[in-house]
Amino acid sequence: MHQEQINHSKPNRLTTYIVVAMLLGIFAGYLMNKNASPEFIKDFAPKIKLLATMFLRLVQMIIAPLVFATLVVGIAKLGDLKAVGRVGGKAMIWFISASLLSLTLGLILVTITKPGVGVNIANADLEGAKDLMGKTKAFSLENFIEHVFPRSVIESMANNEILQLVVFSIFFGVALTAIGKKGENIINALDSLTHVVLKMVTYVMNLAPLGVFGAMTGVIAVKGLGILKTYAYYIGSFYLGLAVLWIILLLVGYLILKNRLKVLLKRLASPMAIAFNTASSEAVFPKMVEEMERFGCDKKIVSFTLPLGYSFNLDGSMMYMTFASMFIAQAYNITSVTESLSTQIAMLLVFMLTSKGIAGVPRASLVVVLATGGMFGIPPEGIGLVLAIDTFCDMGRSMTNVLGNALATAAVSKWEGALSHTHHSD
Questions:
Q1: Residue-range domain boundaries for the chain
Q2: N or C: at which end does the chain have fewer Cβ atoms within 10 angstroms?
Q3: 8 A C-beta contact, residue 383 and residue 298
Q4: DSSP string spanning 125-137?
Q5: Is residue 10 over pLDDT 60?
Q6: What confidence tier does 238 reach under pLDDT thresholds 50, 70, 90?
Q7: Using one digit for the tens of pLDDT, what is the confidence trace for 260-274?
Q8: Which of 271, 280, 270 is nearest to 316 (CA)?
């Protein structure tokens, strides 16, 4: 407790460093874009981006052990299968409602604002699109099943396949609960593992400002600030959509949490800043576990709900999928998509499925858009149109993913009567 009180000022300091690093990165990237030769920029940008790669890789190395340990311990400590089913059921009701809301909102707003109409197709980044196409498999039931059920838990951990890891952890946790006393040593060991990994998180998060600086400098050096002007309407429409989604989520959050919502948002300042600047909601998963527990959510519920949320509840990414696919359909004037409500509803339902288990890593949403869009006649090279500014949209959607998962975890804790007013939460 005392330790946590000492650490309380730290998140705010980290947030400040991250914002400073972002501004410095934009400034350094702009100077380079204006003054350096194209050859130098081409050589330099990938190198400075290595700072971001290093930070993201360090975070990714922590995620598999953390998801496994927290989820298994969470299930084991919930104690019986009825409790697991009850908490899981409440979480899934939230996840499905929030996903449908995000997808539908995205669809309505992109249809009203029509950011893709009249876009110059010649601006498409075809090289980048080709690169992404290599990672894509067309959506099929076989691929979906393979994506959900692990062939080997070691392989799932190695590839950071969060959804497969969740499936294994649920089976493991349920089995561990079923064997009773014999499983206690394993539960204690995994509990200790969680503490070790969370300690590693503190070390890794100190490198966040470096990662942010590298990511920003690299993007602006290559694209310049001009890219923002070209796509201002598209980015603006998407952020308008996110703003509407935030208002709805926060209203629901207020109805459930009342005045504690302010406290929760204060706790989320640092994780949201990291998610925004690294364009990765996965980058803050470990930090979120820590902050939600400090906010007063029951540890067992955090351990159970948060990993599930990272597979089933990526609200910002969901909205972006309908946004990007409709934008491409508008740009290429594919009337079978832009003018057919039944096609759009079918697309929503397919996205509900294909999006499950996309890790919160940069570009993951685009791979899903590519895989799913083909079913509806959306040309894969159209992804090249949104690639150039994807980073800027990714920042907003990653931040929204973090907010959505925090609210879901807090809501489930409240419904379970397991939200305490901790001394260090205010």
A1: 2-425
A2: N
A3: no
A4: -HHHHHHHHTT--
A5: no
A6: very high
A7: 999 999 999 888 988
A8: 280
